[in-house]
Design a protein that fits this description.
Layout (H helix, E strand, L loop, with lengths): L1 H13 L6 E5 L6 E5 L5 E5 L8 E4 L4 E2 L10 E2 L7 E5 L8 E4 L3 E4 L2 E4 L7 E5 L8 E4 L4 E2 L10 E2 L8 E4 L8 E3 L1 H7 L1 H4 L1 H11 L3 H12 L17 H6 L3 H16 L3
Antiparallel strand pairs: 1-2, 3-4, 5-6, 7-8, 9-10, 11-12, 13-14, 15-16
Helix pairs in contact: 5-7
């Protein structure tokens, strides 16, 4: 028995397959053959025989094989899906590599648009093709510019020595600083432009109509200071509750008039 084993083992070892070969049984003779696999970029055309090597054919355009193989057909190249771009095209030996286009990230089965941080929140970690945007609440004294799609939280600006604070900043807009000359030459609407734009983005506030209402009130005699005035003129919860455009115009005109008194 030992003598028989010593004879059989070398015979089987000679037919041992590796990643570049495979064993098959000849359907005519029943003999076990060790055939060469096809190289990457090719497919099997005909199995080897006792007298002939494996026949392979080149993959056609739009197909590929990445590994040594003996499959009868090359694999179809993947096509990028919606909101994806090609990072590396299919080249016969490698499949197409796609990634989400800028502004999107891969979410299991499709590309999803990066989250836009809510008002008062800034970008903590920018989105990538593989990860969504990470947002954080801006701390006191900091804001994220709502007019920018993916703004980080930054500190409120400090007014220059010759400027006065016209409107305290909030978590979604900066301090509004100005000199009397800037107010006279540029007008309040220009100084308040980032704030007005932010109101329009959040609440679809009609800017021109609001400006007209404020201008009318500025032409009238300064009214008494509002008893429930807030240090933050455009506080978000208050705007939600006090959605009347006329009331908002009155608050803005009151702030501008108060500033004008210092000039």
């Amino acid at each position: 028995m030992l003598f028989f084993s010593l004879l059989v083992v070398p015979a089987l070892s000679a037919l041992a397959a590796d990643d570049r070969s495979y064993r098959r049984r000849d359907p005519v003779t029943g003999e076990t053959l060790l055939c060469d696999r096809c190289s990457p970029g090719k497919r099997l055309s005909a199995h080897c025989t006792r007298s002939q090597q494996t026949e392979c054919k080149q993959c056609e355009e739009g197909t590929f094989t990445e590994f040594w193989n003996y499959i009868p057909d090359c694999l179809l190249c993947d096509a990028c899906s919606d909101h994806q771009r090609i990072v590396r095209p299919c080249n016969g030996t490698m499949n197409t590599i796609c990634e989400c286009e800028p502004g999107f990230y891969w979410d299991q089965h499709f590309c999803k648009r990066h989250t836009r941080c809510k008002p008062g929140h800034g970008v903590k970690a920018a989105g990538t093709p593989h990860r969504d945007t990470v947002c954080e609440v801006c701390a006191d004294g900091w804001f994220a510019d709502i007019t920018q799609a993916h703004a980080a939280c930054v500190p409120h600006s400090v007014c220059d020595a010759d400027q006065h604070l016209m409107l305290p900043g909030s978590r979604w807009h900066d301090n509004v600083c100005a000199t009397c000359q800037q107010l006279t030459e540029n007008g309040w609407a220009c100084l308040f432009k980032p704030v007005l734009t932010g109101l329009h983005i959040q609440y679809k506030t009609p800017i021109l109509r609001l400006q007209n209402l404020v201008n009318r009130r500025l032409q009238k005699k300064l009214r008494k200071r509002m008893a429930n005035g807030s240090s933050e003129l455009l506080n978000l919860p208050m705007i939600r509750e006090e959605s009347d455009l006329g009331h908002l115009a009155h608050r803005i005109s009151h702030r501008v008039r108060s500033f004008q008194q210092h000039c």
